[in-house]
Amino acid sequence: METEKVAAGAQFVDAMASAELASGAQRAVNVNGRSILLCRVGGEVHALANLCPHAHQPLEGGAIEGGAIRCPRHGACFDLASGASLNGVTRTAVRTFAVRERAGRIEVDAPRANVGYFPDFSQDA
Ligand code: FES
């Protein structure tokens, strides 16, 4: 039986259909007014703030290499599971969120408004 590790107080909200995120793909979604980047690697989905902590630019479009994503702006590399910085471009981790798949949908633990600077890029052209 599969078990889930979910933080107390987690509030999962619908983000998108599982079938729309193929292995190796990424998609920025608007969750509670915040831009979240969903990435699927090896069948597992990761959810990160679509915000690079280096110069506050979107991570969307960055190359996914193994279990990491490389920011398309200046090359900072982050672990998809933990958000940890993996090279010297920045020491700051990118925020990650609990994510799960249920009944063909991807659900993300909704970001709260009081968690610091976290702009919404989802409406940008
Ligand atoms: S904004 Fe991401 S590496 Fe600079």
Automatic annotation (TrEMBL):
<keyword id="KW-0408">Iron</keyword>
<keyword id="KW-0411">Iron-sulfur</keyword>
<keyword id="KW-0001">2Fe-2S</keyword>
<dbReference type="InterPro" id="IPR017941">
    <property type="entry name" value="Rieske_2Fe-2S"/>
</dbReference>
<dbReference type="Pfam" id="PF00355">
    <property type="entry name" value="Rieske"/>
</dbReference>
<comment type="similarity">
    <text>Belongs to the bacterial ring-hydroxylating dioxygenase ferredoxin component family.</text>
</comment>
<keyword id="KW-0479">Metal-binding</keyword>
<dbReference type="InterPro" id="IPR036922">
    <property type="entry name" value="Rieske_2Fe-2S_sf"/>
</dbReference>
<feature type="domain" description="Rieske">
    <location>
        <begin position="13"/>
        <end position="108"/>
    </location>
</feature>
<dbReference type="GO" id="GO:0051213">
    <property type="term" value="F:dioxygenase activity"/>
</dbReference>
<protein>
    <submittedName>
        <fullName>3-phenylpropionate/trans-cinnamate dioxygenase ferredoxin subunit</fullName>
    </submittedName>
</protein>
<keyword id="KW-0560">Oxidoreductase</keyword>
<keyword id="KW-0223">Dioxygenase</keyword>
